[in-house]
Amino acid sequence: MSERTLHILTDSFWKILLPGLKVTLPLTAIAFAMALVIAIFVALIQFANVRGLKQIARVYIWIIRGTPLIVQLYLVFYGISGLGYLINPFVCAAFVLAINEGAYCAETMRAALEAVPVGQMEAGYCVGMNYRQIIRRIVLPQAMRTAFPPLSNSLLSMMKDTSLVASITVAEMFMAAQRIVARTYEPLLVYTEVALMYLCFSTILTWLQHLGEKRLNRYRDTKKISSGTERGGKER
């Protein structure tokens, strides 16, 4: 490795990593939190089969999943600017990422809600709960456990998709790498470095996903054991 290559790698490391810590990760966390709220709301509308609202939810999912994220970013950021209104690039990016990912996560949540046995709803009504209480205390917790792995994958995908927001002037990791390439004329070296940083972030999130799944499995096994013990006690 030449001295110039080593200098470029060491000099660019912090210039890429700091935007990743200050922009990429916070943007991912904020956008995904909003996406989850959107997804749960849209999924519950479909699960409850609310006429009118269900059709609106299906149209929203159809449009968002049928158009590229980069087009959505350009449409909101440059479209609103074209109307004479200035919008903060970070806010725009978080909003568009949330709307985009919310559509995909809504389908995940809808499938998870429908996977909960109908008997759970009937049992809730039998003990005197109303619909909202059943959804909040029985159906939604079970659906969230089922949806956890695919939602974690969506989080990973969103983290990588944040590289697209460089196109609307958000100074995240990929934009930092582009600026370094424009100065050093070493695209292979710098883009490999930023790819490795995305890989490190993805690995950490994947590790956290595995920890979460283990904890959920442990909780499920504990619940099965306790319910089996209670059943055995009653039979005696």
What is the fold's blueprint, element by element?
Elements: H1 3-48, H2 53-66, H3 69-82, H4 89-115, H5 118-126, H6 131-161, H7 173-184, H8 187-235
Helix pairs in contact: 1-2, 1-4, 1-7, 1-8, 2-4, 3-4, 4-6, 5-6, 6-8, 7-8
Structural account:
The protein is mostly helical. Helix 1 runs antiparallel to helix 2, helix 1 packs across helix 4 and helix 1 runs antiparallel to helix 7. The protein contains eight helices and no strands. The longest helix has 49 residues. It has one domain: MetI-like fold, CATH 1.10.3720.10.
Question: What are its keywords?
Answer:
mainly alpha, MetI-like fold, 0% strand
Please write the string of helix (H) and strand (E) elements.
HHHHHHHH
Question: And the CATH topology?
Answer: MetI-like fold
Number of helices: 8
What is the rounded distance between the termini? 75 Å
Strand content: under 5%
Mean pLDDT: 89
CATH class: Mainly Alpha
Number of distinct beta strands: 0
Total domain count: 1
How is the main sheet built? Answer: none
Alpha carbon gyration radius: 23 Å
| CATH H-level superfamily | MetI-like
Low-confidence stretches: 225-230
CATH architecture: Orthogonal Bundle
Query: Helical residue percent?
Result: over 70%
Which secondary-structure class do the elements indicate? Answer: mainly alpha
Global geometry: flat
